[in-house]
Amino acid sequence: MANSPITAQNTVQQWLDHPTGGPALRGMLAQAGSDESTLGPALTLKLQQLVDLSQGQFPQAAVDELVKAANGGVMPETEATVLPTVAGRFEGRTIIVTGAGSGIGRATAARISREGGRVIAVDIAETKIQELAGELGESIVPVAADLTDLSAVERIIAAAGSSIDGLANVAGINDDFSPLHEVSDAMWQKIFAVNVDGLVRLTRAVLPTMLEAGKGSIVNITSEAGLRGSASGVAYTASKHAVVGITRSTAFMYAREGIRVNAVAPGGVATGIPMGGKTSEYGEARLAPARVNIPGLASAEDLAASITFLLSDDGVNINGAILPSDGGWSAV
């Protein structure tokens, strides 16, 4: 690789190992008052992914200049790497995807659309789902909805119409990493309102249509926090454990009616979505050492591949499963 062009599609680690890319990247980090020791799991990311992950601190222009500098002032030609899709896999099917405005939800909605499906794209951010519809066309039906609003479910079901083949409950929010002795009632209620209550209401609403059809696939998003106690604060952790229980109970209850219910448990994901607000110092101090076990960060598209596999007929014999899509973190 020493004599080959290095591009934004190479990983951060490949950049650091490159004879010209390494010094260029280290120089940029130094200008920002940082160094490679702060990158952690981001070493496995493609350089391009840092644009979204940095939330504006590492803009596209900076990436382009870095690539030029590492290649003698010349921008090498590259092909964008996109995960392969399965043509027609969702042809004739209507799938509801929550959290479709950004991150994993957006990547999932886009992949279903590219594979022939009609997507009811739900998000609280109307502008973002309208942009998605503008990019992908009539296969995207945007529904601006706050899942904590009791009337939102009715509008989502109305937009879907008489046929609902699948539901991806992707929408979710994280907490402030607070442990039990610090967590406020407001934080607890906020997390459960979105991660659990909203999921339950929407799933409950789609089930009659699926039961009448005798088929359907539901995929919930839990988290590594639903598998362990060292991934987040108590509110988020409890909410994602609840999602695991809801998934298994629902899978058992409706297995004979042709409805499959599974969950995907992401590890670290480079979505660039800020958590917002101040985090607990107590929680951060205890969680930080555990993060060294994260093998790497996945892209939103990586998670969309796992979700659409379970949503589709490719997962025909999978029901009640909790699929860790975490690069091996759960194996630690």
Automatic annotation (TrEMBL):
Record-level Gene Ontology MF annotations: oxidoreductase activity
Keyword Oxidoreductase: yes
Gene3D superfamilies per the UniProt record, alphabetical: NAD(P)-binding Rossmann-like Domain
Annotated keywords: Oxidoreductase
UniProt xrefs under InterPro entries: NAD(P)-bd_dom_sf, Sc_DH/Rdtase_CS, SDR_DHRS6-like, SDR_fam
Alphabetical list of Pfam families matching this protein: adh_short
Highest taxon listed in the record's lineage: Bacteria
Family note: Belongs to the short-chain dehydrogenases/reductases (SDR) family.
Protein name per Swiss-Prot or TrEMBL: SDR family NAD(P)-dependent oxidoreductase
Species this protein is from: Arthrobacter yangruifuii
